[in-house]
Amino acid sequence: xxxxxxxxxxxxxxxxxxxxxxxxxxxxxxxxxxxxxxxxxxxxxxxxxxxxxxxxxxxxxxxxxxxxxxxxxxxxxxxxxxxxxxxxxxxxxxxxxxxxxxxxxxxxxxxxxxxxxxxxxxxxxxxxxxxxxxxxxxxxxxxxxxxxxxxxxxxxxxxxxxxxxxxxxxxxxxxxxxxxxxxxxxxxxxxxxxxxxxxxxxxxxxxxxxxxxxxxxxxxxxxxxxxxxxxxxxxxxxxxxxxxxxxxxxxxxxxxxxxxxxxxxxxxxxxxxxxxxxxxxxxxxxxxxxxxxxxxxxxxxxxxxxxxxxxxxxxxxxxxxxxxxxxxxxxxxxxxxxxxxxxxxxxxxxxxxxxxxxxxxxxxxxxxxxxxxxxxxxxxxxxxxxxxxxxxxxxxxxxxxxxxxxxxxxxxxxxxxxxxxxxxxxxxxxxxxxxxxxxxxxxxxxxxxxxxxxxxxxxxxxxxxxxxxxxxxxxxxxxxxxxxxxxxxxxxxxxxxxxxxxxxxxxxxxxxxxxxxxxxxxxxxxxxxxxxxxxxxxxxxxxxxxxxxxxxxxxxxxxxxxxxxxxxxxxxxxxxxxxxxxxxxxxxxxxxxxx
Length: 595
Description:
Blueprint: H1 2-30, H2 35-62, H3 67-96, H4 120-147, E1 166-170, H5 176-186, E2 200-204, H6 220-226, E3 231-236, H7 238-250, E4 269-273, E5 276-282, H8 286-297, E6 314-318, H9 321-326, H10 331-353, E7 358-361, H11 374-379, H12 382-394, H13 397-400, E8 403-405, H14 426-443, H15 464-479, H16 488-492, H17 500-514, E9 527-532, E10 541-546, H18 558-566, H19 572-594
Helix pairs in contact: 3-4, 7-14, 8-10
């Protein structure tokens, strides 16, 4: 990875420099400094972009916006561009190579535009080569678009074939990484239960990158965002209810579905989560599911009041176990059940025609040995439920749905954990909820929801002590004449004779002088006054500055600045000559003091 980072950085650096140069060149060619030429080129560019945009809209309206039509337009425009460039540069090109003369040349005069008679091959070769390049690039682009991996975005509908294809992976909770996390986060020195059967995580099998099916775990934040202002309705038996609870846990309701003997077992549920409404309709039998879906279809699209129910954005339903257990003993019951399944399939298709996607949940794997009653042992063993799953598929229930969640796909490998033969630990249904959450990418209809803008309340993020601290710091900067809030005084510890006060005077004296403002008042033993003579015969202005640093307008050399500070007409040579005796006298004075 480090080598890749180095190589990519070098490539980006070189490309960025070259791109910057090309951008400057193109800017100079297309938008020169000449105003008339610049306006003309802008009009031409705008006209061409508008023309191509209109052409694209026309192709899309006619239904011919495809790779062939795009290639045809590129070829025609390329031919026109080639001929235009050739006609506008031909004379200059031949003159630059001396291919024109006064007699029988390519031109009969300096203003002639008669072309040299080129061969047929030389005339048609450039357009043919350009067309071949466009064709090759187009085919390569089309191939990469079809079989290559694209950017990560919402899953397409084609991922339906892979979303149920996964497995439970056992985790080793006693490896060094887990033990270290337990010690750091919880103070646990050693683990006791280290069996690999204690912890599992659901994962999807690898898919071809060209399928664009990148299944990921949907966290609470992303799932709440996707389901904002939506209503999701679950219809079915206890298996569907567990999936309902698993979806709520995926949305951040951690305790949803926890075992509680005081809660009603056969009741409807409704839980708002932010702007999302999650509801469950207890409908264990197929006839109950038909009634429930009819009731949902009769709902208004918009709520009549705050408590009014509306048509959901998606229906998730499942069943079959209760029908096999209670109303499947006689031939008459079986035939009646088949009629009910036909009506159920019809209602599912009607709901889909009203733009309500319907998800069917195939019953999960049954742990036959763990069934708690003789009636269940006799009617809903795994072999019986396998036949029931086949019956629902034969009657068109699966085809009538928008998507099918394969219950055995995420329960078969963990069937031994089914404690009563039907229900599983809560974590198992979390895998099914993630399958549903990924399928929502292509199932949920696209809708634009505009939230009302609520501005943040004043003082919501305020901290009085932080505000008081900033006032103190600002007061220090004002009182000490220091734009760095007093930290410039630290520099005075290392550079003697330079104080923030002097820096303030030096910085603002020139500003006051240029803008005809009052002079900056100076104080202290280091202050002096100099005369600054501005250019263009402006009157002299006396501006006080610090003697340690000079601010002089229109001074061409450092010696002139020093002369201005001295206040006389001393030249740079006088300064050089006068500096030597002063140095000598200083040397003698130091010598006499030592003596």
